[in-house]
Amino acid sequence: MAHSPSNYMEDKPGSINGTTAICATPEERIDKLKSTPSENSPIDLSKLDGPDHDRVAEEIVRTAETLGFFQVVNHGVPVELLESLKIAAHKFFGQPPEKKAAYRKGVSPSPLVTYGTSFAPEKEKALEWKDYVSMLYTNDSEALKVWPEECKDVALEYLRTSIKMVEKILKILMEKLGVTVEAAKIDALIGFKMVNMNFYPTCPNPELTVGVGRHSDMGTLTVLLQDEIGGLYVKVEENIDGKQKGEWLEIPPIPGALVINVGDTLQILSNGRYKSAEHRVRTTSEQSRVSIPVFTIPNTTEKIGPLRHLVERDGVALYREVVFGDYMKNFFGNAHEGKKSLDFARIN
Ligand SMILES: O=C(O)CCC(=O)C(=O)O
């Protein structure tokens, strides 16, 4: 590949200049023809408040136990806000490179805001074809003070409204594990919150690159808004509903819907019952794409391990107890490599 995206920010010597830096290795490239779109209908969360509560709750549990990925509608995040978020993301990334570079690691005026490219550029064999801005949440007034002007108001409203939905879904998933759900426990599991905005510039040769490499999320639940371009793929972990283990399903954009995925923390807590979802992103040559995840993550001091009664029931613990801060350090210390992040806690 001769050239990098026009507003790609990475300038480390020896990385973006070499052709290998942005060409994914053949086994990591995404063959669109070797994947099928997921046909799962989105789950209507408003039905949790009516007579269909149990059926909808069961559907959430079942998808968390199988694919670890589902889409939701009537989720409580206003649809107009979703549109404003996409506009704000384009506004942020459409700025001149030097404006965005002001938020790079090491120079950003606040440790809560980081602008970067790829996941762990110094570790990856090939850079991901994306830029991102990451906004860590501590409290409203700090967010409004230090998050980028172009997107702070909508990002904060998105965080507030999606957290309510996350709490609802998490409560259902924890209850199904037989856990009495105290507000404090839920708070600890999603104590650390972050809104990211991802920008995937158009790519002249999408078949040679990756937008985001294969990975699972480290946290509890992730909420994702994707625009109408498409390109998000999830790996089928076990044969189910006519889908074969190892197959990649495309999660099609659905207007007004949000994508939810299970993270490693829930897989560990549930002793493997809930599946953190391995996913990746393909770029396109036609239009740039934006996606906006909200990551909900345990507090760094929280101890994460399989729930005791599940270990008793299963007769074996699949994971050891880890302090979440250590898990996180290991996660960020390595390049994306599927669900390898879970090995840090796995008991062989
Ligand atoms: O862009 C997407 O659809 C997914 C992004 C993602 O996986 C991430 O930011 O970790």
UniProtKB/TrEMBL annotation:
tRNA-binding as UniProt keyword: no
- Renumbered to this chain, region (Disordered) spans 1-51
> Which domain of life does the protein's organism represent?
Eukaryota
Q: What does the UniProt keyword field contain?
A: Dioxygenase, Iron, Metal-binding, Oxidoreductase
Gene Ontology process terms (BP): coumarin biosynthetic process
Q: Which residues form the Fe2OG dioxygenase domain?
A: 185-298
PROSITE patterns given for it?
FE2OG_OXY
Name the coenzymes or cofactors required. Answer: L-ascorbate
Report a single Gene Ontology molecular function.
metal ion binding
Record family assignment: Belongs to the iron/ascorbate-dependent oxidoreductase family.
Q: What is this protein called?
A: Fe2OG dioxygenase domain-containing protein
Q: Origin organism of this chain? A: Hevea brasiliensis
